[in-house]
Amino acid sequence: MPEKGFAEAFGVTEEARAKINLALHVTGQRADGYHLLDMLVTFADCGDRLGFLPAKADAFTLSGRFGETLAGDSGTNLVLRARDLLREAVGVLAFPVHIHLEKNLPVASGIGGGSADAAATLRGLMRLWGMSLPAEALAALALRLGADVPMCVESRPLIARGIGEQIEAVPDLPAFAMVLANPLKGVSTPEVFRRLATKNNPSLNLASGLTGSAGWLAMIGAARNDLEPPARQLVPEIAVISAMLQGRGALLTRMSGSGATCFGIFASMVEAQEAATALHGTRPDWYFQATETISGGM
After folding, report:
1. pLDDT at 70
2. Annotated binding residues, as ranges?
3. Is 199 one of the annotated active-site residues of the chain?
């Protein structure tokens, strides 16, 4: 299905924004094995896109650069799991639906693609089915789909703690011009955590009264992603791609999530777009995307 006319082809559409971990501190581990995290998260003005239509029977279709990666994944696809869980919750209101996923983000890349898709499915189907869930019930259902899904339902700048379910809005976070970069090489999240040398690291301290991009950049720069060193051991291209972003003038670079996507923050969208174009020319087989994150006061 072509990208043009997407909104016209489907009665309800939802954007599944890329989730960017500006900082990720691993602060402990629960008895059940889940790691405790402190994360400063924002969302980019790019990502996957979903469309929803009433249908005679449930259907699911794919398009986009990375759509083929998910072909045949009906058993584990988070979009279908989100549909089925929400249908259980709402019962007779949930008539059959055709869901189309335009997969523009790399799969399993540390920017919440599958989680954002699941969250967008919940939002889109509630609109299509003409219903809503109380905020607490929606958050609990989202958490059943994955630790990142509740924050992707919010899709706004936030701090997430615990395993990701303790969410606090960050209304003062500004927008940033950014390039997302991924060498399109898989990295195992369980293996990254297994290689993490220290699991009781200092928590994220968000300074109060931050104003303007410069102050926020300094604060983000003083934070870290505790998963980046072990991820670099597994995928050396992460270090390469970070150096490429720095070489094109990024003010700050860091890996997002468990990788392998890195981001570079630039002074302007013009600089970000120029950097993305140049980097794509150097490595056309990798993923580079200029984008802007949303502000906390959107």
Report:
1. 80
2. 106-116
3. no
Number of domains observed in the structure of the chain: 2
Catalytic residue among 38, 48, 117, 148: 148
Are the C-beta atoms of residues 29 and 199 closer than 8 Å to each other? yes
Q: Are residues 65 and 35 part of one domain?
A: yes
What are the phi and psi torsion angles at 186 (to 5°)? -70, 150
pLDDT digits (tens, 9 = 90+) for 140-174: 999 999 999 999 999 999 999 999 999 999 999 99
Same structural domain, 64 and 150: yes
Its domain, for residue 207, covers: 177-292
Distance, in Å, from the CA atom of 64 to the CA atom of 16, rounded to the nearest integer, reads 13
Annotated binding site for ATP: 106-116
Query: Is a pLDDT exceeding 70 seen at residue 3?
Result: no
Do residues 133 and 277 share a domain?
no
At 45-87, the pLDDT tens digits run 999 999 999 999 999 999 999 988 887 665 458 999 999 999 9
pLDDT at res. 275: 98
Q: How far apart are CA 58 and CA 87, in angstroms?
A: 12
Q: Is 148 a catalytic residue?
A: yes
Catalytic one among 4, 19, 45, 285?
Answer: 19
